[in-house]
Known about the structure:
Structural class: mainly beta
Radius of gyration: 23 Å
Order of helices and strands: HEEEEEEEEHHHEEEEEEEEEEE
Number of helices: 4
Strand order of the largest sheet: 1-3-4-7-8-9-10-11-12-13-14-15-16-17-18-19
Shape: globular
Helix content: under 10%
Strand content: over 45%
Amino acid sequence: MKKKLVALVGVALAGSACAQSSVAVYGVLDTGLTWGKASGSVSTRALKMSSGSFNGSRLGFRGKEDLGAGLAVSFWLEGTIFTDDGRAGGALTTNNQTVSAAGSGLNFSRRSTIGLSGPFGELRLGRDLVPSYWNLSLYDPFLNNGVGTNVMLGVASALGAPAARFGVLPAGVGTSASYVRASNMISYFTPPTLGGFYAQAAYWFGENARTGAANDHDGNGSGLRMGYASGPFDGAIAWGRTKASATPVATTPGAPSGDNRSWNIGASWDFGAVRVMSVYGRDVREGTAGVRGRGWLMGATAPVGVGEVKLSYGAYRIDGGAGADPSVNKLTVGYVHNLSKRTALYATIAHLRNRNGAQMTLGGAILSATSARSTSMGTDVGIRLIF
C-alpha cells in the first residue's frame, strides 16, 4: 500500500512539473485634467478630471498553463476602471446590439477570453477586439485615447445632427459596439513563424432566436485582418461586417437601421529618429437610408531624451446624400515624459474644425443644434502608472 501511495504522489508531482502555469494581476491607472472649448452659435467651455486620457485605466487578470507538446491554454480578463471617481465597468453590448451604460459595476468589457495556442497559432473564444479595429489604433500615435482619439473613430457616430440622419455606425460605437469589440466571438490568430506575415480571422454571434423576425441575424458579424511586419515596416489591411437589419444606428426614436461594413489599410515605418504612420478607411451603413463615410489619418512619433513627441492630422467625411456632407478635420500634438518604465507624465492638445453640419467637440464641450460651422479645442494633462 505504501509503495502504491508513493507511486501516486510521484505521478502527481511529475504532472505538476510538466504543466507549468502562471497567473498575473495587472493594471493601468491614468488620471488627469481635461479642458475643452467649443465655438459656434453658442460657445461653451468645460474643465473636468478625467480617467484614461493617455492609456485606458484598467484592472486585469491573465494566466497561462503549459500543456506540453507545444500546447498552452490561457485566459485574459480585463475591465475598465475610472480613477477620477472610483467607478468601474465599461459599456457592454447585449449580443452586439443594444448598449449598456459604463460605470455600473466592474465587468470585463475590455476583454474576456480563453484560448488554446500551439504551433498552429491560437484559437480564442470570448469578448475581444475585432480585426478591423486594430489598424485604427496601432497606426494612431495617440492609440485612440483622450482628445487625441483617431478622428476616424471619434466622429463616425457623431458627425452631424440629427444622429438619425447621419449615423454611419451603430449606436454606442465609441468603445462598446462591434465596430471596436464584439462579444460571443471566435478568433483565429496565425503563429509568429510565417516570415513576417500575420493574420486574424473572426466570427461573432448575435445569438437572436430564429423566429423569422427582421432582427434574426442582427449582431452576427465577421472580420479579417492580414499584414506583414519586417524590420522597420509594419502594414495591414482589414475588413469587418456586422448585421443590423433592425438595429438602429442611433438612440433617436425612428433612427434607421442597416448592416455596418468597414475596411481600412494602414502602415508604419520606423526610421529610428522618427516613426511615421498612416491609415485610410471607409465605413458603410446599408439600408434604405444608407450612408457612406471615409477618413484618413497621418501621424508620427519621435523620441526626445526620456520622452516622446506625438503628432497626428486626420479627417473624416460622411456622404449623407442630397448635398449633406458633414466633415471634420483634426490636428493633435502631444508629449510624453517618462519618469520610469512604468510612470509617465503627458500633455495633449487637439483642434478640430466642423463643416457642413458636423458637430463634433473635444474635452466635454458642447454645441447647440444650430451650430452649422464650428471649431473645438481640447487639452489633456495627466499622469499614468502601470502595475
